[in-house]
Amino acid sequence: MRMKDLKPGLPIRIIADHPNGYGGRKGKVVAIGTFEGGPKTIGVLVDIYEACLIIVKPEHLDPGEPDPIPPGWEEIEL
After folding, report:
1. Which of 65, 69, 73, 74 is the most exposed place for a label (fewest CB within 10 A)?
2. Comparing C-alpha atoms, which of 56, 71, 52, 61 is closest to residue 11?
3. Least confident among 7-16, 35-44, 46-55, 56-65
């Protein structure tokens, strides 16, 4: 994806062969920008619905499907 197409809350999928070990995981964009200092925008902060946030370059992201459950609702198995 291109940096200009990304915005916070956008659903994404990390490319399958990503070297960080999180390839193929779904998530959402939390923030876009510089996370290590300096003036250059270096990546995208991604929530992968686990106990960590990761930084990924935009070219390693694909568009994801929107969440079918409305905000404030959660799906559970009975």
Report:
1. 74
2. 61
3. 35-44
In CATH, what number does 3-63 get? Answer: 2.30.30.50
Residue 58 has a CB neighbour count (10 Å cut-off) of 18
Query: What dihedral angle (degrees, nearest 10) is formed by the CA atoms of 20, 55, 5, 42?
Result: -110
- The span from the CA of 5 to the CA of 21, in Å, is 24
Query: Pick from 6, 11, 71: which is nearest to 42 by CA?
Result: 6
For the chain, the structural domain boundaries read: 3-63
Place of tokens 């995981």: 25
Q: What is the pLDDT of residues 17-26, one digit of tens each?
A: 888 888 889 9
